[in-house]
Amino acid sequence: MGSSFYRNSEACVLVFDLTTEDSFKNIDQWRIEFLRMLNPPDEDEFPFILVGNKSDRENDVIITKEQIEAYCREHHNMVYFATSAMDGTNLEEAFNKVAELALDRYQRNNMEIVLPETKYLKFDKKEEKKKKCCL
């Protein structure tokens, strides 16, 4: 995907399958690719959340809690959610957290930006039409 897909991103969700080793091994590659395409000025502070899906399949889970905690620690204490698309476990919480992180980043960045003078359309006032006079 081109960089336009990533433009104006305020947060990123990295999702892996708790029952597949390869998907967990690939999350850092996805994180690096995302940062390369977005090229944010605050790369070390850019908000990511990590989502391990298929938590409902407890007998098939092969990614350990220790592996996940180590990855999150290595990447600026990334927030983690164990979720299940099958039964909805922690989905709302994960989406609420990414929305919160994105809003925080958006507000922080927009307070630092000084916009040039902008002209706005006014819809609440009716401007009087200027009468033209002919001689």
The CATH superfamily bears the name P-loop containing nucleotide triphosphate hydrolases
- In DSSP terms, counting alpha (H) and pi (I) runs of 4 or more, how many helices? 4
User: What is the mean pLDDT?
Assistant: 85
Q: Can you tell me the CATH topology?
A: Rossmann fold
Alpha carbon gap, first and last residue? 65 Å
What is the ordering of alpha helices and beta strands? Answer: HEHEHEH
**What is the CATH-assigned architecture?**
3-Layer(aba) Sandwich
Structural classification: alpha/beta
Strand order of the largest sheet: 1-2-3
Sheet with the most strands?
A: 3 strands, parallel
Beta fraction of the residues? 5-15%
Taking Cα atoms only, what radius of gyration do you get, to the nearest Å? 23 Å
Total domain count:
1
- Uncertain residue ranges: none
Question: Which labels suit this protein?
Answer:
135 residues, alpha/beta, Rossmann fold, 3-stranded parallel β-sheet, elongated
